[in-house]
Amino acid sequence: MPTPISFLPGFMNPSSFRWNMSGNTQSFTSPLVGAVQTVEMPGARWYGSMTWDTLEPYQWRDLEGWKAQLSGAAGRFYFGPVHAAVPRGVATGTPAVNGSNQTGRSLVTDGWTPSQTGILKRGDYFHFDSGFGRELKIITADVNSDAGGNATLAFMPPIRTAPADNVLLTVNSPSCIMRLKDDTQGENAVTPPLLGGMDLEFVEAFQ
Questions:
Q1: Residue ranges per domain, the chain?
Q2: Is the whole-model pTM more than 0.85?
Q3: Torsion angle defined by CA atoms of residues 66, 67, 71 and 74, in that order, rounded to the nearest 10 degrees
């Protein structure tokens, strides 16, 4: 995988922003009774889009230059939910993975501020890094820490690669590795007097 680059910080407030998690499911319909079974498969991923309606020349030229580095869908960049860069929970402490070989939709962690109600709230995000990239998760139930600063997090999507013990969690400005949806993204619409507009669609990229 190419080395991800940073997203331009001056463009984190677009005119509009869309963000979602795309599941990976397969459905089977019985030819006899029409009953439908749906199976969840590995491979859920994040995707999103941003639109800038009005950009000054110095802005759209900067954005064009950044986009050119990606060589279309071949490049990679770090990006996350700009609408949830700051958690609703207090999110204090130095949280880390507590125990290796953890998989599924929950994670035992430690290093939080002890005995804290609402250490994270449903809808908060976090990420961790592993040898196979970065995984971004959304919290699905409020989290409290115990007297030892331990907390079990419930989230989606499920873990793809078990993180190592003591890997740190990032709860502020969390992100994942993204790529442009296709090679045609980022066409710049220029109108007099040299005002620009741009749309970008992107999807999570992982090994």
A1: 5-80+178-204, 83-156
A2: yes
A3: 110
Beta strands at 16-22 and 45-55: parallel, antiparallel or unpaired: antiparallel
As a whole number of angstroms, the distance between CA 30 and CA 28 comes to: 7
CA 202 to chain centre: 11
| Residue 23 binned pLDDT confidence (cut-offs 50, 70, 90) | confident
β-pair partners for 176: 79
**Is residue 32's pLDDT more than 90?**
no
Greatest distance between any 2 Cα atoms in the chain: 64
147: which 2 tokens?
Answer: 């007297």
What is the rounded distance in angstroms from the CA atom of residue 120 to the CA atom of residue 82?
Answer: 17
Question: What is the rounded CA–CA span in Å between residue 29 and residue 18?
Answer: 32
Predicted confidence band at 100 (pLDDT cuts at 50, 70, 90)? very high
